[in-house]
């Protein structure tokens, strides 16, 4: 079993959040990726935005030599004004 470099993962999530916050189509949406232990939570206003964040995040993760196949996707949860995965 291989280990994931937590520092590299944190850096890739930070880069993802930075890109999302700077993109025009995400302005004012408070979309982000939250990390807590071994769980990543994606927060956005729509499922479409969640899919866009996933694409950005996978690119950032793979550039840091982390295998994106280690990510498990769960259901999308709508909670009022936000959508979470």
Short description:
The chain has helices spanning 6-22, 47-63, and strands at residues 32-36, 39-44, 77-79, 82-84. It is an alpha+beta fold. It has a single domain (6-84), classed as YajQ-like, domain 2 (Alpha-Beta Plaits), CATH 3.30.70.
Give, in spatial order, the strands making up the sheet with the most strands.
1-2-4-3
How are helices and strands ordered from N to C?
Answer: HEEHEE
CATH superfamily: YajQ-like, domain 2
CATH topology: Alpha-Beta Plaits
| Total strands | 4
Average pLDDT value? 87
User: Oligomeric form of this entry?
Assistant: single chain
The CATH class: Alpha Beta
Structural class: alpha+beta
Helix-residue proportion? 40-55%
Query: Helix count?
Result: 2
What's the shape?
A: globular
**Terminal Cα separation, in Å?**
25 Å
